[in-house]
Amino acid sequence: MKAWLGALLLLSSLAGGLRAQEAGHDGGAAPVWNEIKGEKLLALKLRGDAARGAEAFVGCQGCHKRGATGSPSGAYPRLAGQHATVLIEQMTDIRSGRRQNAKMLPFADEHVLTPQEIADIAIYLQGLPIPPNLGKGPGDKLERGKELFVRDCSTCHGERGEGQAEKFYPLVAGQHFKYLLRETEFIRDGRRGNANPDMVRVIKPYTDDDLEAVADYIARLEAPAAAPSQ
Amino acid sequence: MDTSDCSGRRGDAKFAGAQERTRAWLAALGFVVAAPAWADDAEKAKTIVANVCSACHGIDGNSTVPTYPKLAGRHPDYIVRELKEFISGKRKSDIMAPICAALDPGDFKGLGAYFGAQKPSSGTVLNAKAAAEGKKLYQDGNELSGVPACAGCHEPDAAGNKRFPRLAGQHREYLVEQLHNFRNDIRNNETARVMREVAKRLTEDEITAVAEYLTGL
Q1: CA closest to B145 among chain A residues
Q2: Quick one: how many helices (H) and strands (E) in chain B?
Q3: A2-14 pLDDT, tens per residue?
Q4: Residue B77 sits in which domain range?
Q5: Considering CB atoms only, which of B148, B164, B193 is closest to A63?
Q6: Quick one: fold of A142-219?
């Protein structure tokens, strides 16, 4: 809980930092990555309640499944154990259209969820146990995958794929392979609207084989034990 | 803009006519509309059911006419909510709207409790193949078209809860009709928003199949 509060305190200064960082890249013209304002700021500031979150999440489990385990087919990501900050960022980006998700939007838009419920769901999901992963890749390029991950990804996503809550870097370890593969493709091909520009830069030159290798490696990383929810 | 309130007053002349007819009909059935001080809400609800609702929904809430829904075992909060939606006109029904408007909204809670406490019955599956396909859709959804699993909201055994109604054992004809009503925005109440989205993603075959499965539960 202390870490969570600490993360919140960091947010306002962080938002300013990101803005400055972004302005440096594109002469200030490009939209800021993950600008913390509006309902995103509100949901990050609100204190989430895991019990209320569990109730609000009932309307999501038709896709993300009970326990938020997602689908090994890759259609729906696992949400269990993800950092609350990341969940809030992704949900509000989906609502604002920065990250396009037409399938999910009608079940998570402003008619269905309040910013308070976004905060509630985030804290609930963060505390859920991460199930042993079923969605793995072919396993024939793991050496190459490790090399790429350590070189290009671990600075942000962490050596074990644990991510960094206060910087909005997602926990990726143990996510379904097919989902990871689709997202890395989206990121490379400019189809994930809210993708971090520094990440896009490192993934840009990847071949399809590289993406498969790194996604398979990540899918097999053992996710760390869940943080307590309250 | 709809100006009706829970007391069933409404400016619409055609509607008022239907309401008058219902009152007369209720009176003809021997039901006293403006009943004086009832000792017990449950007793009053029982009397209303016996005199009004049972004609269509059955005395135990297990209607035997396929277009009249079974109400037995539905969550009391859900029943109250739908009765109010009939009055507001957001859920359109030429049959239920005048009946609800002729009732005292103070009785809705008692009616919900009465039907909620009845034991629900199951129907008979006529097409086993369709029922098996329906089961798959109900439990897993359709990932390609983005239909969420019905079980996620309505519970794996389709017994429902206070937000998401019971579907188990319901008449297939009624289920199909309601799925069409959602899809065509005829059932336009706010709480049904997500359900309208679900229905718009269903094919006609999926509707037939899932209704067949649910009937048999």
Answers
A1: A103
A2: 11, 0
A3: 455 444 444 444 4
A4: 37-117
A5: B148
A6: Cytochrome Bc1 Complex; Chain D, domain 2 (1.10.760)
